[in-house]
Amino acid sequence: MSENIKLINRIYDHVENGDTDKAVFACLRLSRNIGDVFNTTIFVTVQRNF
Asked: Residue 15 belongs to what domain range?
């Protein structure tokens, strides 16, 4: 759980620094950590289509 909190804080840091690509992949990592299969699947599907 504390790992997820650290990851959330890192996401906010990335956003504040303008590193949106890093923030997006950190969000993906978070969704995988918490078992959010639906959003992880949608993300991977959208990324594959670009």
From this structure: 2-48
- Decide if 15 contacts 23 (C-beta within 8 A): yes
The pLDDT score that the predictor gives to residue 19 is: 92
Q: What is the DSSP string of 28-44?
A: HHHHHHTT-HHHHHHHH
Cα–Cα distance for residue pair 17/35, rounded to 1 Å: 27
What are the 10-residue block averages of pLDDT along the chain, 50 residues in total? Answer: 91 93 89 89 77
Number of domains observed in the structure of the chain: 1
CA–CA gap between residue 8 and residue 49 (Å, rounded): 27
Q: Are 20 and 14 in contact (CB under 8 A)?
A: yes
